Structure formats: structure tokens, C-alpha cells
Amino acid sequence: MQTTPLFSVIGYNLQQKLICLTKPLREEAIKSLYCGTLPRRLAMADLGCSSGQHALIVVSDFIKTVEKLCLELNHKSPEYKVFFNDLPGNDFNNIFKSLDSFKQKLCEEMESGIGPCYFFGAPGSFYGRIFSNQSVHFIHSSYSLQWLSKVPECIDNNKSNIYLGRTSPSNVVRAYYEQYQRDFSLFLKCRAEELVEGGRMILTIMGRRSDDPSSKDGCYIWEIMATALNDMVLQGIIKEEQLDTFNIPFYTPSPSEVKLEVLKEGSFAINCLEVSVVHWSAWDEWSVLDFESESGYNLTQSMRAVAESMLVSHFGEAIIDELFSRYQEILADRMSKEKTKFINVTILLTRKP
Fold first, then answer.
1. Is the dihedral of CA 290, 296, 297, 302 positive or negative?
2. Which of 100-104, 202-206, 315-319, 344-348 is predicted with the least confidence, judged by mean pLDDT?
3. % of the chain at pLDDT higher than 90
4. CB atoms < 10 A from the CB of 157, how many?
5. Does residue 289 surpass a pLDDT of 70?
6. Quick one: angle between helices 54-73 and 99-109, nearest 10?
7. Among 106, 130, 133, 349, which is disulfide-ready with 268 (CB 3.0 to 4.6 Å)?
8. What CA–CA distance (Å, rounded) separates 329 from 82?
9. Can you tell me the mean pLDDT for 75-80?
10. How far apart are CA 87 and CA 180, in angstroms?
11. Residue 145 · residue 2 · CB < 8 Å
């Protein structure tokens, strides 16, 4: 169930922050890719692009980096082919409507001009093939691969949780990890077939530092939602059996788990593996209560954009406003008392010969 990345108002700031943090790594990858092959045509893809503008920031950085290299090396600009991928239900029109102004701005910033640019939508789950064999040079994905293709099977005993938590039984923890292994291995296999030899791929995944999949640093954002749902069960608003049968298709891997799957699949060399931290508000300051309360509202709206369709499908629409009102209250309280942060795992890979 590849789904929309986690962002709206606050999520957009979070996405911007992550793109800024990973920019040096992307530039390093693009430079080594171009200088190593000097291609006349370059194809890049953003996987899980959603409908926001963050994908265009990555595309802009990609083209600018290559054009600067062309100037330094006195080479003719290549042709650029850019693919935006997400599930078929994604609103690609939001991206496409902004392409004319995007290209005009890019040309103005690069006074020497840029090579021809062609843009395409590529709807489909990235847990399967999207592109033809060896047709892509550079792949980018940010905050999408924590979503699994489906909820793991045989986790009916994950009582009072909606994801992994401190009370999740060992079989549930194992089922989530094994689903992650299958999904990420398939993702790597598909991308290995689509990337050219020497092609680069940079992935940023919401993850965790701890080796324990049920640790707080990977599960806290969903534990708070489970708390709100459990309160509604106690007050008779939601039936207990409804909650006990609701789980989300999500997994926050540790750096070692990401590395292990890459090594097992075997198609890629690991150039870099980094861990970064971003505050839940997407700003670095841990500030006063009124700021955290506003951030709590914004993050609640992001979570609602991400989770509402799943919640409505399982619990019905009538409880949604009440749930997110409770969620926001708990979230703002926690953010006022703790340094709540997202852990991010970023990996840069090169397609082996």
C-alpha cells in the first residue's frame, strides 16, 4: 500500500528540511554519475512524488548540478527526461500545471541555458516495475518507503495498538519486519532492472536509531494516535474489536536493517548511509507552549491527510473529527514537554555492473 508521503503544511516544511539536509549527498551522486558516463541523455525519477512542489526542488537541483558541470567541462547540455511516480490516485495535475513556470524560472537562473527537458507522469506502485530495462540514470525517493505494500498477515493479537508498540507481541514485531524485508527487497530488485549500470539512487526513509522495531523513536507518532483511539474505546465511542483489528502498513527501519537488505539483494554498492534528525515541527527550536500548540495543529493536519482514508474505511466517517481533535490535544501536550523528533535514514546507492 504505497501511499502519499507524510506532509501538508508542516509536512511540506519537513520535506523541505530533508531535501536541504540531503542536498550535498545528491550533488555528489549527480556529479559522479555524470562525470563517470558523460551521457547525451539523462533520465531521472522521483518515486512517491505526491502532488507537492518538493519533487520540483529535487529536479531543479539535478539539472543545475549537471549544467554547471557541462560549463566546467565545456560539454553540450544533455537532454533531460524526468518521471514523477506515485499511485494512480495521485493528483499529478498539481505538478504538471506548474511545469511551464518551473522551466522558465530554471532558464532564468541558468543564464547559459539548459538542455531540452521532457516531463512524464509514471503512475503505479514502486513495489513493482515502473520503467523499462536500464532506462533511468538517477532515482530519488523521500519519505515514501516507510509505507509497506500491505498490512502484515497474522497480527490479530496486536491488541490496543495500530502499529508496533511497546505492548506488541513478538510475532507481530516479526511479521512487520518480514513484510518490510519482502517489500524493500522487491523494491531494490525492480530498481536494479530499471537503472543503467552505474546509475545512482538516493532514498530517505522515516526510520529509527534503535535496533528494537517497537522502540519509541520509530513508533511514537502512531502510539499517540493509538492512545486517542483507546480513549474513545473506553468512552464507548469505538468498539474494542474495531480497534483490535486495525493496523497500518508502515515500518520504520534502522540503518542496519536498510543496509542488510541492500547487501542481501546484491545489485547495489552502498556509497553512503546517514542518519538525520528533524523536529516534529520541522524547525530546530524546542520552543514555548503556544508555538508547540500551533505545531501540534499542523502535524495533526498532516497525519489526517495521511491516515484519514484508512481510518474512515475501518471505523467510519462519524468518528474522524473527534479522533483528530483528541489526537491534536495529546500531540501538543507531548510536544510541549519532549523533544519530539523524526529519525531519518538516507542511503546513496550505485547500480553494480
1. positive
2. 100-104
3. 77
4. 11
5. no
6. 30
7. 349
8. 42
9. 96
10. 19
11. no
The stretch 76-95 carries a mean pLDDT of 93
Pick the closest to residue 205 from 165, 147, 267 (CA basis). 147
CA nearest 13: which of 337, 285, 315? 285
Provide the CA 80 distance to its chain's centre, in angstroms. Answer: 24
326 has pLDDT over 60? yes
Confidence of residue 52 (pLDDT cuts 50, 70, 90): low
Q: Which residues sit opposite 295 in a β-bridge?
A: none
CA distance 126 to 130: 7
Report the relative pairing of strands 268-279 and 117-123 from DSSP bridges.
unpaired
Which domains does the chain possess? 12-351 (3.40.50.150)
pLDDT confidence of residue 151? 97
Query: C-alpha grid cell for residue 205?
Result: 526513509
pLDDT in the model for residue 288: 41
Does the pTM surpass 0.85? The reply is: yes
Work out the burial of residue 351: count CB atoms within 10 Å of its CB; fewer than 13 is exposed, 13-18 middle, 19 or more buried. Answer: buried
Are 196 and 351 within 8 A, CB to CB?
Answer: yes
What's the confidence (pLDDT) of residue 280? 82
